[in-house]
Amino acid sequence: xxxxxxxxxxxxxxxxxxxxxxxxxxxxxxxxxxxxxxxxxxxxxxxxxxxxxxxxxxxxxxxxxxxxxxxxxxxxxxxxxxxxxxxxxxxxxxxxxxxxxxxxxxxxxxxxxxxxxxxxxxxxxxxxxxxxxxxxxxxxxxxxxxxxxxxxxxxxxxxxxxxxxxxxxxxxxxxxxxxxxxxxxxxxxxxxxxxxxxxxxxxxxxxxxxxxxxxxxxxxxxxxxxxxxxxxxxxxxxxxxxxxxxxxxxxxxxxxxxxxxxxxxxxxxxxxxxxxxxxxxxxxxxxxxxxxxxxxxxxxxxxxxxxxxxxxxxxxxxxxxxxxxxxxxxxxxxxxxxxxxxxxxxxxxxxxxxxxxxxxxxxxxxxxxxxxxxxxxxxxxxxxxxxxxxxxxxxxxxxxxxxxxxxxxxxxxxxxxxxxxxxxxxxxxxxxxxxxxxxxxxxxxxxxxxxxxxxxxxxxxxxxxxxxxxxxxxxxxxxxxxxxxxxxxxxxxxxxxxxxxxxxxxxxxxxxx
Length: 513
What we know:
This protein is an alpha+beta fold. It contains 18 helices and 15 strands.
C-alpha cells in the first residue's frame, strides 16, 4: 500500500513539472533515451566520468550525495519542494537564464537612449549649420575688400587707407563683429595699430522706419562727384547735404571746410576726384559725420583712415558695457534671462562703473546741443558702448545716432495706425496722430532719459549704501524726463549735473578717478 501511494505521488509530481516547464526549455533539457524512456539531459559543458555517472537513476551528484530517486517521495519534505528539486535536476540551466520580459525591457531602454542620442546629434548639427550659414551671410569682408580694391585700382576712389588695404596689405580684417550683411564690421590691424574696420556693401541714401537704420539702394557706387566737378562745386554739394541733414545752422561753412581737410588724405593741400568720391560716399553715413563733428571729444573714437566707404576707427579694448564675450555656439544654449543676470556679475568694480557712467553722461551732453545741432541716440544698448583700459567710455557703434532735424523731416509724414508704427531704431519714438493718421515729429523721450534707463541697474547694483537712496531718486527722476515737458532743457541740465556731481563726489578720492 505504501509503495502504491509513493508511486502515485511521484507520477503526479512529474506531471506537474511537465505542465509548468516551457516547451523550449523542456525540448532543450530532455532527450529520449535508447530504451524509449525520457531522462534528463546533462547540462552543457564537459563533465568527468563520475559526474556523468551521477546523472543516472540513483547516481551521485556533484557533491557526492545521491540524487533523490524519482520513486522515493520520502526524500522530499513536502510535495512543492520535491517538484522544485526535480525541476532543478531536470534543467539546471533554465534557472540561470533571464526571463524574456527583462530582455525585452533592456532592449527597449537601449533603443530609447540610442534614439535620443541621435536626436541630440541631429538637432545640434542643424543649429551649427544654421549659425554657420548666418555667419557667412553676415561676414562678407572678402567681398567688401574686393569691391573697394577694384574701384581703387581703376582710379575711381582714393584715400589714406587704400594703399595699405589693396597694395601692401598691411591692413587686414580680424574677428567679425557684423550684425547686418550691409554693415560690415571687423576688428582689424593696420600696421602695428589695432582698429575697427567698417565697410558698407551698398550706399545709404535715405532713412527707412523698418528694420534697417541705414538701408541700401542698388545704385552705381561712387558716382558723385562726376569728372570735371570743381572744388567750389563740391563744397556747394556738401553744404546742401549738411543743410538737409542738420538744418539751417549758421556755422555750416566751417563744417564744410573741416570735411575738405579730412578728405585730403595724402595731405597735399588738394582734394583729388578719387578722394572727393570717397568723402561723398562716407558723408551719407551718420557715424562718419558724427566722428568728424565730435573728433575732439574724449568719448568719440578717432578716425584713422578711409578708402571709399570703408573706414578705420580707433579700437576699444572692451566692446560692451558689461558682460563677457562667449563663443556663439555657447550663446545658443544660454537663456536670455540667465544671460542678463550673468552679465551683471561680470562688471568692473562700482567706482569704475561710476566713471564709465560719467563718460556716458558727458557724451549725452556732447550730442544734446553739439556745435552743429542736436543728434538723437536711437539705440542705447550695452553692446554699442565700450571703455578702454583706463575705464573711460568709448562709443563702439554710432550708426544709430541720427541728426534730429533729418529724423523729424522724414517721420512727420509717415502713415501710422498706432504709436507702434512711429518707432525709429529701438529708442526713438513719436506718437501717432489719429486725426490725420500721421506720425508726429516730436520724439517722446530725450537722450538723457534713455541713458538713465540703461544705467539704472548698472549703477544701483553694488552702490555704496550712503548714496544709494539719493542715486536711485536721481535716476528715476531722469527716466521720467519727457521732451514735451515745460522747461525740459532746464530740467535736463539740472538732472545731468546732479548725477555727475553725485558720482564724482564718491569716486574723486579713489584711484579710479
